[in-house]
Design a protein that fits this description.
Strands 2-1-5-8-9-4-3 form a seven-stranded antiparallel β-sheet, with helices on both faces. With about 170 residues, it is mostly beta strands. The protein contains three helices and nine strands. The protein is about 15% helix and about 35% strand.
Length: about 170
């Protein structure tokens, strides 16, 4: 097997990055009296029994510092109706604006913000944080949720018009 093409590609950007249309979520966090939230494009269920979910937070994101101190994260599924929420949490940065002052939300018992516009969400206790390079993966154990029924989720392709508040 010729390894030359693989070795030659190691110093270039991954050509399929951004090609796959992955579902997007808004992840919110609360720690030390601060709340934060961002759009997350790297997230997936990773175990059925026990239930586990992986949400990856960019190190460049303003949400990162709050999420790394939080005990729980809330993960909100987005549909076409929540495109405005995706624009707010993906296109604005918490460095400059109070995103929660621009949308409706309620605090969970521990203060974690729940976005009321999103009918499908869960709160998960952070079991582990995994260094994944420019992102940190938070392994979540769902504790509380709201099932909004069958939905068609927004994908990275659906929000390609959103200019990120921070680089990924």
């Amino acid at each position: 097997m010729d390894e030359t093409p693989l070795a030659a590609s190691a110093d270039r950007a991954f050509p399929l990055s951004g090609t796959f249309a992955a579902p997007v979520f808004v992840v919110t966090a609360y720690a030390d009296g601060r709340r934060a939230g961002c759009v997350v494009g790297f997230a997936t269920e990773v175990s059925i029994h026990p239930a586990r979910f992986l949400a990856c937070i960019s190190r460049q994101n303003a949400t990162f510092s709050v999420a790394m101190r939080a005990r729980r994260l809330a993960v909100h599924a987005l549909t076409e109706r929540e495109h405005g929420i995706a624009r707010l949490f993906g296109g604005q940065t918490g460095d400059d604006v109070d995103k929660f002052g621009m949308c409706e939300w309620v605090p969970a018992a521990d203060g974690t913000p729940i976005l009321t516009a999103c009918p499908t969400w869960f709160i998960g206790r952070i079991l582990e944080r995994i260094d994944l390079g420019d992102h940190v993966g938070c392994v979540l154990a769902p504790e509380r949720w709201q099932d909004g029924g069958e939905i068609t989720q927004l994908t990275t392709r659906d929000i390609s018009d959103v200019i990120p508040g921070h680089p990924a």
